[in-house]
Amino acid sequence: MTKGEARRRARVVILALAAVLVVAGVVTALALQRPPAPIVPVPQVETRTPTPTVPPRQSNDGVGDPYYPNAGGDGYDALSYDIRVRWDEASGELNGTTTMRIRPDVNLSAVRVDLGLTVDSATVDGTAVPVVVGNGSDRMLRLSKVLQAGRESVVSITYHGDPRSVRSDGGDRPVQRGDRGLMIAGEPISATAWFPSNDHPSDPATYAVSVTVPKDLQAISAGRLISEDADSDPNTATWQWRTDRPTPTYTVGLAIGPFRIERETVDGIPYVYAVSKLLSADEQNVAMDTLKTTPMRVRQLAAIYGKYPMDAGGGLVSAMSTSFGALEIAGRPFYDSDFLDLSDAGRTELVVHENAHMWFGNTVTPATWADIVMNESFATHASWTIGELNGGRSANDRLQSRWEDAYPGFWRQPIANPGRDNMFGTTYDRGAMALQALKNVMGRSKFDTLVRRWAAGQGPHSFNQFRTLASEVAGRDLSDFFTAWYSADSAPPKTAEYGWPG
């Protein structure tokens, strides 16, 4: 190879290398301009913490009340009752079917109700279930399928028996049998004598009541009168009542007998009055005239506490004597024959007291029976307040005279927790005194705000909630006042700090 050829070949190699480098550069540049390839994520296995399964449990016998531990059944909320009973006058026996709509708070494998009569059969959501008879009025329905918390279910129970056989666990009889009739009413226990229920005031519900009786008798219950002869049998009459305002079981009573009935509508409220025809003509007239003052008293109470909370009004006067005298049946207080022995002023006070319970007891219900003072103090104080408005003694005069003239032992039992044996004792007068003293301490404007806010509540409320609300409305701590009036076993100091009116 000559030097010239060598040089030519060298130039060719150099040019070839240069071309290769140029091509490589172009490829690199193009690669740099191209968008990056997407990153494909590594598949991840999703992990979840499993939701723990809450095992079902049986409803317990009783809601845990400190005075009546076996009253009611826990684990569910009773929403409504459809009560249908037939009363046989000859035997005195009731036959009935009650349908409850309930909503469990927890998963339930058994539901407990209170009923003092014999259960014939029971279904839950249409499925037949066995019933276990427990202590006293306890009846446990064993479920074939767990009831889920928060889901409504329908419980239906068919039963029979003589209501007169039923007693409360304190031995009281809530049933009176008279000539051609009976009355079922009582506090704290009475519902167990004629329908199955969650029999505790912490579980108010609505009610439809249908009662079939002999044609010449009437059946009176709570709420609005829907029909007074809803059947086609010429020998019987079926009376239907309804209340859509939730109320405790003990405020739904039943009276059967020959009654004189009158009706009217006042301020949009339907009133039904019933007076036993077994009373003399003069007694019937006095009773009816007094009952017909109820709309006036309701109007006065509403001006203080707010709108009347029931969907009906009225009253019933029986020819029978009872242990309770009068009871706040929802929308229609029942009064026994002793009502006629009172003076005009005494009957007026009693009508005010029982109708005040439509706010305090029937709408704002006790959380437990230990909170009974919240029922009776307000109802008694209402009668004092209305009495003063109508020209009678002032509430402060009543407070002062009772404070000064209290009998030995009056202050011994605290009313914030009066004990089972004193539920219906000093909770009335000492409770009303405490409210009037509180009014003196807070001033009328703040006290009026307090009672209207309390009355506007619905469902179970405790004494402690009221004490907290009072301090909130007053704008200062009232602990010393409440301790002295509600929890101490001696009289409060007679000073302005504790409401002394002198």
Architecture overview:
α3 packs across α4 (344-356), α4 packs across α5 (373-389) and α5 packs across α7 (429-442). 45% of the residues are buried. The radius of gyration is 36 Å and the shape is globular. An 8-stranded mixed β-sheet has the order 6-5-9-3-2-12-15-14, with no helix packed on it. The protein has helices spanning 3-33, 281-291, 294-305, 344-356, 373-389, 395-405, 429-442, 444-455, 463-474, 479-487; strands at residues 57-58, 76-87, 94-104, 108-114, 118-124, 127-128, 131-133, 138-147, 153-161, 175-178, 181-184, 205-214, 218-220, 224-227, 236-247, 254-257, 259-266, 269-276, 313-317, 326-327, 334-335, 364-366, 459-461. Helix content is 28%, strand content 27%. A hairpin with a 2-residue loop joins β5 (118-124) and β6 (127-128). It is α+β, with helices and mostly antiparallel strands.
Structural class call reads alpha+beta
Unreliably modeled segments: 1-51
Radius of gyration: 36 Å
Helix content: 25-40%
Biggest beta-sheet profile: 8 strands, mixed
Number of continuous helical runs: 10
Task: Break the fold down into its secondary structure elements and pairings.
Blueprint (H helix, E strand, L loop, with lengths): L2 H31 L23 E2 L17 E12 L6 E11 L3 E7 L3 E7 L2 E2 L2 E3 L4 E10 L5 E9 L13 E4 L2 E4 L20 E10 L3 E3 L3 E4 L8 E12 L6 E4 L1 E8 L2 E8 L4 H11 L2 H12 L7 E5 L8 E2 L6 E2 L8 H13 L7 E3 L6 H17 L5 H11 L23 H14 L1 H12 L3 E3 L1 H12 L4 H9 L15
Parallel strand pairs: 1-4, 2-12, 18-19, 19-21, 22-23
Antiparallel strand pairs: 2-3, 3-9, 4-8, 5-6, 5-9, 7-8, 10-11, 11-16, 12-15, 13-16, 14-15, 17-18, 20-21
Helix pairs in contact: 3-4, 4-5, 5-7, 6-7, 7-8, 7-10, 8-9
